[in-house]
Specification:
Two copies of one chain form a homodimer. The first copy, chain A, is mainly alpha-helical. Chain A has one domain: Orthogonal Bundle (Arc Repressor Mutant, subunit A). Chain A is about 55% helix and about 5% strand. The first copy, chain A, has five helices and two strands, in the order ααααββα. Chain A has a two-stranded antiparallel sheet with strand order 1-2. The longest helix of chain A has 17 residues. Chain A is globular and about 50 Å long. Chain A starts with 10 loop residues before the first helix and ends in a 6-residue tail after the last helix. Chains A and B meet through helix 1, helix 2, strand 2 and helix 5 of A and helix 1, helix 2, strand 2 and helix 5 of B. The first copy, chain A, binds a DNA duplex through helix 4.
DNA sequence: AAGTGATATTGCAATATTACAATTATATAT
DNA sequence: ATATATAATTGTAATATTGCAATATCACTT
């Protein structure tokens, strides 16, 4: 096949994997890092900064956006890509809960 | 193309993506969760537990292992898949450092 | 309303990932 | 040494992801 068998896992397990997928590509990590550094909402030069084509960046932004990690003004002249910090913190908490739960060991 | 352009990103950025990839499949999340629950090193029934074929599980274990997240006795009767907690904590720290660095915002 | 600047969408090609059947390798027991 | 149980490897098919050129869309300006 090739498709992940999502139905055999718990929602929590699938959720963790979905969140991880957002960060599983360096371009998306770089985009998030870059956006977070911009203080003045001048975020329209992500393309120049990252070094990938505009459609590719747009595609990655879509993935990030679908995960709920973006907010801001996406239209018109006063464009602004910002990180949805609330959602971002949720992600961090899910990850940390996973990490903390998984530390027990046997040898 | 289809291959990620790794050379345009910093090592740190690529590292974060590589770490995230380990957790970007629910089967691997489930495997890690399952292993961490086993107290007696009897870890040979991951296949039954997860619901994927033995080769598929083996493949996922290889991904987890290549990331340095496994330790234990992989051969013979006294099999034992254990989580390399030290490495696991490293992962958690890298993630948290990324999350914490990326929280600044503009709107 | 036509032009401009910026982002989104579409279509396509290349590579990566996922999954499993068949097989092989390895360690232990008899 | 043979048998058994378990895990790794190989081969193959299907799906997903990545990337970009071409095009379309959208908001604003003049």
């Amino acid at each position: 096949m090739g498709a992940s068998k999502l139905q055999i896992h718990s929602k929590r397990t699938n959720d963790i994997a979905l969140i991880a997928k957002v960060f599983a590509h360096p371009a998306r990590v770089a985009i998030l890092e870059y956006i977070s550094k911009q203080k003045d909402c001048i975020c329209s030069d992500i393309v120049d900064e990252i070094g990938l084509s505009q459609p590719t960046i747009s595609q990655h932004l879509q993935v990030i956006n679908k995960a709920g990690l973006l907010k801001g003004n996406f239209k018109g002249k006063s464009l602004c890509y910002c990180i949805n910090i609330k959602r971002f913190q949720e992600f961090q908490e899910v990850f940390n809960s996973f990490f903390n739960k998984t530390k027990f060991n046997c040898c």
